[in-house]
Amino acid sequence: MTHTAQLGRAKRAARTVGLIVPGIVLVASVAVQLIWLPRMPDPAATHWGPSGLPDGFGAPWSNLVLFAVLGLVTLFLPQLQLLQQRGMAPATGAGTWASANRWLPAFALGLVVSLQTNALGVALTQLDAADARETGSTLGWLIGGWVAGAVAGIVGYLLQPRVRIDPETGAPTAQALPLGEAERAAWVGEIRPSRGVAWGLAVVNVLIAAMTAWMFTVEPLAGWISLGVFALVAVSTGMCMWFSVRIGPAGFEARSRFGWPVFRVPAADVADVVTARIEPLGEFGGWGLRFAGGRTGIVPRGGEGIVITRRSGRVLVVTVDGAEDAAAVLAEATAKAAEQAAEPIEGDSQ
What we know:
Strand content: 15-25%
Structural class: alpha+beta
Mean pLDDT: 85
Number of helices: 8
């Protein structure tokens, strides 16, 4: 089966598992709750405390709307992944597929089943009740929802074909930069997130900082804990999203702006280097510094990048501007290292 046929089959299965089936579950659940709506108490219970009894109340439709919105947001997650792929396909004429493309639809199915099981349980518990305060615990429905969601997610994962198409699949090896015998070349660049991702990270850090300041006014201990979380998030963001890259005769090096971590691939250890369009969400399940099997990704954004395969078979994927130039310099360094390794050592017998 060709890669195109495999990809088409995998996408159809993912769409069925991550959109069609959970969409049917969501519509059916909402329809049942709408039928039951006239039989709900007013106000209805919307929250249950540690005792298992209701301690929060709202309009009869509150739970219906809450669980429906959560379900719709869940359905959007796998579609974001497919939309990213569709936007990249015209530039590559191909596509990629990895484990994240398989488990995200399964996760969406499991979460929708879990949420809607809880929604129906919450409604059924209060059906025809004169006073929502007299209704019982929904703990059984909560546990049942977790179990049903887990089973649905596992089944959804197993029903999808096991397909892996890496971005470098079918891509030609980068052409070495033509240089003279005594010439050497170097390429310097950076790995950084897109403007949208950078703004998103900034907003998250600002919100955590604001919450930390507020927590200090409420409870100092909670404030210090929140400050620790803020520091951890800020440092982790800087370490995993911004890297300086240098490629030269020694090989490839990507160093975090914080000085650590550092990723190096000696020129003599490069088995192949190609340029490709990188899709972080599908291949690694997200952005930043990622690990998936024998692949390491420094992928704070999608788009052009280079894929370096080491002699051990391990792969390093990075997104950089000017990927073709970077790959050409690394290919040239690799070729020079191979030539040097093949030269006989002076004094060897002939």
